[in-house]
Amino acid sequence: MQNAIKITGISKFFGDLKALNDITLDVAPGERFGLIGPDGAGKSTLFKILTTLLLPTSGQASVAGYDVVKDFKEIRRRVGYMPGKFSLYQDLSVEENLHFFATIFGTTAKASYHLIEEIWVQIEPFRKRRAGKLSGGMKQKLALCCALVHQPEVLFLDEPTTGVDAVSRREFWEMLKRLKAHGITILVSTPYMDEASLCERIALIQHGEILSTDTPQGIVSSYKKPLYAVRSDQFYQLLQDLRKAEFTEKVEPFGEYLHLTTKPAVQTETIGNMMEHKGHQHILIKPIEATIEDVFLDLMQTENAV
């Protein structure tokens, strides 16, 4: 089966700045694939290459079977692209924006209503409102409608949930899940590690390089080191004490807990004894399964040590 997206050795330089370095990825037809990494990791640069807005310095890539350099016109007919920054016409109304983008692709909103119905019913009450006056969540839904109006084969969503509230984020991902029934391939980027589990497969990216590619569970299962959630009544002091402890490999703040990775064969009792010796009270230590963020931080540490 031909991949919906195939990337082989893609690199991109801006002068001496290396934005992407030898990226290789495959995305299957109908797959919901996540590109996970912080700001500046190279996500948007890769999206711009795949949507034919930038030329790669080296390497090859194809989308829907078409080369991103040679067949750019064909690719633009077949993909939907929702950039990270809201880029619709703010002075046009909701329905005017939708009509405009449908007309560009020689279609109508009615022809693609089966794709956008669920989203449209939420923004239809505001159809006369200027796009620039919408809330963040409504802007997001309008942008998704416009990206889907020509029934694309591949949908590129560059950090679509950045800057919107938690409820809108959850609703957006639920809509993406249901788009799978229409056979649309989705490549979505996000800096939010908690959204990684909502994808079928993910790639972790940092400094323009892919650190790991697998299913979310596969990424988590790759973490084989002892990991504990730890806390006490002196959070900051505990962080300092654990960083100095001989049994510590690394320790990072995670909400109300510290995530402590220890060297092999370290017992919980050893950790507790150290904390008591340092005067900590209300101590809690429990073994935990790694999160994707734990794995990402560990891979970054390994990369930086090379």
Would you mind describing this structure in some detail?
The chain is α/β, with parallel strands linked by helices. It folds into 2 domains: 5-215, 3-Layer(aba) Sandwich (Rossmann fold); 224-289, Alpha-Beta Plaits, CATH 3.30.70.100. It has helices spanning 43-50, 72-78, 94-104, 113-123, 136-148, 166-179, 216-221, 235-244, 268-277, 292-305; strands at residues 5-14, 17-27, 32-36, 58-63, 66-67, 79-82, 154-158, 185-190, 201-206, 209-214, 227-231, 248-254, 257-262, 284-287. The strands form 3 sheets. The protein has a 6-stranded mixed β-sheet, with helices on both faces. It has a 4-stranded antiparallel β-sheet with strand order 2-1-4-5, covered by helices on one side. Strand 9 and strand 10 form a beta hairpin.
